[in-house]
Design a protein that fits this description.
247 residues
Amino acid sequence: MPDFALWRYALGMLCAFNVGVAKTGVPGMGILAIPLFVVAVGNARLSAGWLLPILLFADTFAVWHFRKHPAANRLFALLPWVAVGMAAGAWLLVYDDRVLRPVIGAIILTMLVLFLLRKRAVNPLPVEGVAASGFYGIFAGFATMVANAAGPIMNLYLLTKKLTREEFVATGAWFFFLVNLSKIPVYWKHGLMSQSSLLFDLAMAPATLAGALVGKRLLTRIPQHVFEAAVIVLSVLATIVLFIPNR
């Protein structure tokens, strides 16, 4: 088990809880976990690999829960472009923490801007055709490989497909399950996962499961705009930390 201060474990559990909530009904919660997890681990480069098993655990739960509703055919045109973006992201992983912290921060802020534009019914991105698949796929692949931060861009893409709520959540769950599974050998090769990271992730599992269970209930009881406002504000504050040099 990593020799972390107690507050790092507590922050990691908060992130794991947010991931669980995001996977089962409140997608906006996921973006908050990424910058906070960098702070919990203390290294932007390692944080992507350490967070991956937590995401996969939550993905597995979501895939099982929404197993009757996926619209997988909506992803076929996207997947080749996702692979291109993931390849570009894998190349960037050779750089150290001083490069990756601001890159991850910039990715998250870009995702938040896109999320806010979508909330104002303004989608600045292409909607149909090869251009749309290429843009969404490359951006999503790059963001997920470098920072596990493809959630908002995939939400925008799936919104253009006119899916039912169940299809939306289920299709996203299958997409991230398959993509996150494919990232394991890349992260392992780059030394982003280890026995210590897996033990840390195992300790986070109860918080992830709790978040997944709570997420289903909270979605029906708390107004969506309250969640989204809180997530946006906290994400911006947490992301600012990424632009501060890690001494």
